[in-house]
Every structure is written in C-alpha cells, then in structure tokens.
Description:
The protein has helices spanning 3-10, 24-31, 41-54, 71-78, 89-96, 114-123, 132-145, 182-188, 209-227, 256-274, 286-289, 321-324; strands spanning 12-13, 16-19, 22-23, 36-39, 60-64, 83-86, 105-107, 126-129, 150-156, 166-167, 177-178, 194-200, 203-204, 236-238, 279-284, 293-305, 308-313, 337-339, 349-354, 363-370, 378-381, 403-406. By secondary structure, the chain is an alpha/beta fold.
Amino acid sequence: MKPHEHVASFGTVDGELRLGGMPVSRVAARVGTTPFFAYDRGLLDARVDLLRRLLPARVELSYAMKANPMPAIVQHLAGRVDRIDVASAGEMQHALDSTIRPDRVSFAGPGKTPAEIRQAVAAGIIVEVESPTELRRVVAAGEELGLQPQIAVRVNPDFAVKGSGMRMGGGPQQFGIDAEQVPAALMEFAGSVDVIGFHVFAGSQNLTAEIIAEAQRRTVDLVTELAAHLPGPLRYLNLGGGFGIPYTEKDQPLDLETVAANLHDLVDGPIAERFPEASPVIELGRFLVGECGVYVTRVVDRKVSRGKTFLVVDGGMHHQLAASGNFGQAIRRNYPVAVGNRAALVGADAVTVVGCLCTPLDLLGDDIELPDADIDDLIVIFQQGAYGLTASPTAFLGHPAPAEVLV
C-alpha cells in the first residue's frame, strides 16, 4: 500500500491528516510534545467489527497484548474481544486491571518464573505451558495454593509455516512442547491440573491467505491426534493467528475473506464434529492494532549534503526499531510516510528522513517523495499500532520517551 492509501484510511480535515477526527497539528498541540504515538479508536473498532463480520460466530477473538500493551488500548479492547493473551507479569497485571475476567486471560511465552506462574494460578488465569519444567511449576503452584490450575499445552508442531515474518513453530524451538512429547507430558501430570486444550502458533506476520489456511487445517489435524490423550473433552483450541499487515509498497494486504472461508469450513466441519465442547480461538495482535496507529515526529532541521536533502526529526529508531531496519538485521524498506500537516498535497521532493541519534542506522525514510517539508512540519509514519514503542530501544542515548494517546 502506498502512503496516500494510508492517508485515505485515516482521512483528512483542513488538508491535514485526521487522527480521531482532529487535524494532526491539533492532536500534537494537545499532547504538548513530539514525538508521540497516536492510536485511532475508530479504526481499532472498525478492525474488530470486520473480524466479527467475516469470521465464524463461534470463533473467539484473543488480543495478544505483546503487540501493544498501552493500558488505554487494553482497557478498550477488553470490552470488544473475548480473551486477552499476556506474556509477562507486567502484562498480566494490565489484563487483571481491565474489565475482562481472569479466566479469559491466557499466559504464554517461554521462561515463566515460578513467581509468575504462582501469580497466574492464584488469579485463575489459563497458563499455556511451554515445557515439562513449566508443567511441574504449575503443579507445585496449585498444590501450594490449594487450587487446581487450568492449563493449555502450547504445542511446537511438526510442520513449519512458510512465508511468515517470524517462524515460531516446526523444527527445534524454544516455544511450546514438541508435538511428539505431548502425550507423555499429559500422562505424567494427569489429575494434577485441569488441561483444557492446546495452543498451536506456528508463525507471525503472514500475508498469504492460503498459507494461513493450510496451517489452520494442519493444526486441527494435529490437535485431533493429541486430544486422544486428554483426560477429558477438548474445551480450548487456540489456532494461533499470524495475520499480517502490509508495511511497504511491495506488500499486498491479507485476503481476509479467504482466511475466513477456510475457518468457516473448519468450524462447521471437523471442529464441530470432533470437538463439540471446544471454543476455537484466533489470537491476534498486529492485525488488530497495527494499522490503527501512527508515529508523529517533528522536523527540527532541513539540510542538504552533497546534493541529498535530509529532514532531521526529533524522533528516531529508539522509538522505531522496526521501521529503521532492526539495527541492520533486516533488509530495510521504507514504511509509508507522509507530512501530516500537508497530507492533501502530492509529494514533490525526494528527501531522506533521519532521526536524532548518533548512528547512520537512524533512518526512517530513504529517498522518499514528500510535499515540500521544512522545520516544524510533522512527519507521520503509518502502521505503528503494533511493536512500536515497547519493541524499541527507548533508553538509547537517553532521549525522553514519546507520549502515547488513544484518540
């Protein structure tokens, strides 16, 4: 998708990008500082509504908080989704502070400490165990507290998902218990915990609908084999997520209708037949919040060096690690960028947008066409609702942390 398409999704008012119905310059004035992240509540609701409209009614939506743990977003989504997935004690507390019931919260991720597990068990949260060690810790916590913990086994499948931005299943993994080891683990701890089902998450940031559909079909087949080893009926079937969003012009948006049609076939067919008591869950983070957010930073200098024009902004890779190329570990491609207070104008100048850090890696837009921009103009980077602030090295060079607003 091109920058003007992202501008169109937010809309304009008085020639400026609109955020929550207000011109971006007014939002900046209310925030009182740049840089800042702004998340559009209307776009967030529209994404939830789209998923509700297309996915089977029986499918439950789980918000993967790791994508964006901003408390205001968590509070808002707690009233719109069915479940919340957390990956640390800090995220767990955000979820418990929201309106969602504790038994609708799942705790996933490797390396859970005994203290974190005790906290989850005490609160009545579902622990998604990732290893036999975690299973033993859950049992010990239950015995100590006099409770029977609810768990789901996170399974490392025997297949990999091609085309994912990050592969999290298949082959050796720190995530989940290898599928072939699950039966023995269930037998060892039978009766000590309430095993409600399985979680299979094979990869993230996938833009190919058929690959996601195939992974879901194979997941249902795998879980069918493993469910035979459960002491009771399968009640929880987390099919993962992995729905991607387009970040660069070469990316094509995910065909959600194809993914939804496959889910209808699975839910009405093998899932209904084999697991009548199960709640199928789709766990989404980036796809829910990614496209509702922008990063706004102010031009503090415009300079020309040997024929190349640079816009130097007051933000940078310390807030935008992914957009800058992950410390050079990824092939860097430009995220969609606009001049927020000149959003109605067509790009004319080829400029390079750089941040305020002392490294050439601090690159936010390389040789991009923007309307004539100068000092104090507002540069907006799109697709920033997920894995922005909390996935970036904010302490680098000691600059202040950016503000966050839900508008």
